[in-house]
Each structure stands twice: as C-alpha cells, then as structure tokens.
Input
Amino acid sequence: MLREFDIVVIATDFEDAEVRGKRGHIIGQVCTDDIGVFVYDIERVWCMSPRDVTPTGERDDEAERARQGAPVIRVNSKGEIVG
Output
C-alpha cells in the first residue's frame, strides 16, 4: 500500500515521456483512482494511477518534515492547483 511521502519510481512505459523512469514522492490521493507524485527532477506534481509507480521502500522524511503545518494543496488530473 502506498502512503504519502513514499518514494517511488514512475514506470518506464508511462504515457508521458517527461516523467518516465523518474523518482518522486507521493503527495497524496488526488481523486478516487489517482495519486499525486512530486517528481524530483522537474519539481512538479504529476497525477497518475498507483499502477504507474513502483515503491522503492524509502520515504522522503525531509519533505514530510517540511509539510508539517503547511497548507494542503489540491491538484486536478492535469496537475493544476485547484484549491
């Protein structure tokens, strides 16, 4: 089961070449079937199915500490901030 701040690798056959094979951490569930992944190399959030990522077994403790007390940001399936 994937949890916030788990570090993942995006599938090499993911539909968008910009993020294929890249690492990031899960920021949370975006909608019923999708998760948001903060992609380290491009410093952006990408929305995708949990089936499109493989957990590394690591957690991003630094990101988790930085988020404590920070406002929650929601994104839509296009990665746009919605509130």
In short: The first helix runs from residue 61 to 67. Residues 45 and 57 are 20 Å apart (CA to CA). The helical segments are 61-67.
